[in-house]
Amino acid sequence: MTPMTPMTPMTPSTRSRRFAVALLLLAVAFATAPAGHAAEGDDGPVYLIVSLEDAFDIVSNQGSPVILVKIGTLTGGGGIGDARIVRDPPAAIPFPEHQFTFSDLQDNATTIVGAFRASDGVEHLMTPVPDPIPSDVQTAFFDAAAAGALDDLAVDAQGNPAFPSTRDIAEAIADHLPLLSLYDVDDVLEHVFATDATLHLQDGTTASVDAEGELFPHDPDEPLFHYSFSFDEEGTFSSDVCLLVSVDVAPGASTNTVNIGKKNGSLAIAILTTDAFDAADVDEATVEVGGVPADRTSLEDVDKDGDDDLVCHFDVPTLVDAGAISTTTTKLFIDAETADGGCVRGGDAVDGID
User: Fold this and answer.
1) Chain segment 258-285, per-residue pLDDT in tens
2) How far is C-alpha 220 from the chain's CA centre?
């Protein structure tokens, strides 16, 4: 990011006037806010952004062209603990002729961003990088997305992909920065396009490209969602943004050691009920580890906290044959759908011995 020009220090009288103006604007905003607005919370869209160049350009005035597409809706409700993502169905984005080829996406930067407003009126932005993001930028992103400013950039007047630049997106968001904000379009560029994820060709071929990572709320705490998505050569992409849930491998055991050399054996993995998630919401028929479905499931209070957890039993030889566990496995992940069509994912340490 281009270094910002140092600000002229404010004198006490200037600071007092600015503070007084801010208080006046706050009072006006409070007085004109719709009754009950803060008690409801508001949903916001979730966007996939893929650079058509190696990296996102956040320095030049032209920026770099990107694929921008809505992949779902982020719902908030009471706050961070209630956040969920409702996924949009798979869609196709026609690649622009003569601009780039499918294989050009290899190792290009990618990110997912979304925001919602909680019932306390605070906007929360989700990105893959766990660095703090100024509240003004979070608010601006939510307001810009809610106003349709990003959707307008994603397609042209004929409904075809428009491939906006990083600068176009940042300027649309910066237009919604709060009055008197100390942040500008360069700050938006820095925070929205921060990423540690890139696309990779699967198996070294051009069959598809994919990426995965975790989404953090900001100010960040623990990651809240796990995301994954893929493109194929036709421009069709699919995505999963799954709520991260608490999991206990071999509940009740002092260690998570799994003997993978036995010709038979069962491994229990519990999806735990917490204040933020009810394990009974899981569609038991969808539970799997590494593509291997559970043999059977049951609701039991394995952690003795008064709430039922979902205990899922897997055949160990089947897990081994599928490559889901081996002597080098240090963590197992369990995936499932919820009854309302969402998805969840959780992981726990494991030690596979032969």
Assistant:
1) 888 877 889 999 999 998 899 999 999 9
2) 12
Give the helix/strand (H/E) hosting 108.
Answer: none
The two three-digit tokens of residue 84, written as one number? 């969920």
The answer on pLDDT for 24 being more than 50 is: no
Q: How many residues does the chain have?
A: 354
Q: In 10 A of CB 177, how many CB atoms?
A: 22
14 three-state secondary structure: helix
Question: Which tens digits make up the pLDDT trace of 100-136?
Answer: 667 777 788 889 999 988 888 889 898 988 888 999 9
> Rounded distance, CA 269 to CA 294, Å?
10
219 and 301 part of one domain: no
CA distance to 99, 164, 232, per residue, from 160 (Å): 15, 12, 18
The helix/strand/coil state of 222 is coil
User: Which CA distances in Å does 86 have to 119, 140, 228, 329?
Assistant: 18, 22, 14, 31
Boundary (domain end) residue, out of 211, 244, 277: 244
Determine how many CB atoms are found less than 10 A away from the CB of residue 253. 10
Identify the residue whose tokens are 């806010």: 33
> Domain ends where: 222, 244, 266?
244
Instruction: Record the tokens describing residue 247, joined without a space.
Output: 């999991």
Residue among 247, 241, 248 nearest 213 (CA): 241
Give the tens place of pLDDT for each residue, 59-74: 999 999 998 988 888 8
Residues 136 and 238 occupy one common structural domain: yes
The most confident of the ranges 24-33, 48-57, 101-110, 144-153 is 144-153
**CB neighbourhood size of 157 (10 A):** 7
Per the CB < 8 A criterion, the answer to whether 2 and 63 are in contact is no
